[in-house]
């Protein structure tokens, strides 16, 4: 009997050790798709932008460093120029640097040159690839029904940024016949999307909003469309009070 107990105990210890080892090994397996990502326009660092206080901190233009408001310092990120597919690995120098909210990051001239970023359309994707850092999420109001939904809808279009004329080295993107919409969020249930519309009515002064049905289980809430940048920017700024972390502006070609 004692012998059987000893064998049982040793077996349990062996299984526990194996499980722990597997968990430790799996912890290092990172899927980029499970991490933070954002497609949008980047601002290319320039000393004049710092002097004019458009960017609040300096950065070495020879480095592979960026400013990001949503990722912790020293996070490793993959930057991809969505116009030509070129990508590099960079690091977040600071998440406390101030710059216009329409931009998803500030990059250096070296990164811009390596990725062959277009000044007219500096459209990039940022992907977090380091499991030791994490996405900084604001405290946002959510719906309980949505918390357990893992489905993510594809993001179409591009993010349009602050196009004020005083932005050095950032050329205006003319709207002309193109319209723009602010994407608030995608919801699994239509009821949740309707609740979001109620929040927009009650908490903002935004007048143009609607629900777009993407599928039977995907309902997108957008603001707009708008055919001028100033109105677009105004609605975007008003929407920030809703505390959604990944507001995006979609281009409707």
Supply the key terms.
alpha+beta, Alpha-Beta Plaits, 2 domains, 6-stranded mixed β-barrel, 4-stranded antiparallel beta sheet, 6 helices
Cα-based radius of gyration, to the nearest Å? 22 Å
CATH superfamily of the largest domain: Sporulation related repeat
Number of strands: 10
Share of residues in helices: 25-40%
What is the number of helical segments per DSSP (H or I, 4+ residues)? 6
Total domains? 2
Q: How do the SSEs run, as a string of H and E?
A: HEHEEEEHEHEHEEHE
Question: Can you offer a commentary on this structure?
Answer:
By secondary structure, this protein is an alpha+beta fold. It has two domains: 33-128, Barwin-like endoglucanases (Beta Barrel), CATH 2.40.40; 144-252, 2-Layer Sandwich (Alpha-Beta Plaits), CATH 3.30.70.1070. Helix content is 26%, strand content 25%. It is built from six helices and ten strands; from the N terminus they run H-E-H-E-E-E-E-H-E-H-E-H-E-E-H-E. The chain has helices at residues 2-27, 47-51, 109-115, 144-147, 190-203, 229-239; strands at 37-44, 65-67, 76-81, 87-94, 105-107, 123-128, 179-187, 209-215, 218-226, 248-252. The strands form two sheets. The chain has a six-stranded mixed beta barrel. A four-stranded antiparallel beta sheet has the order 8-9-7-10, with helices on one face.
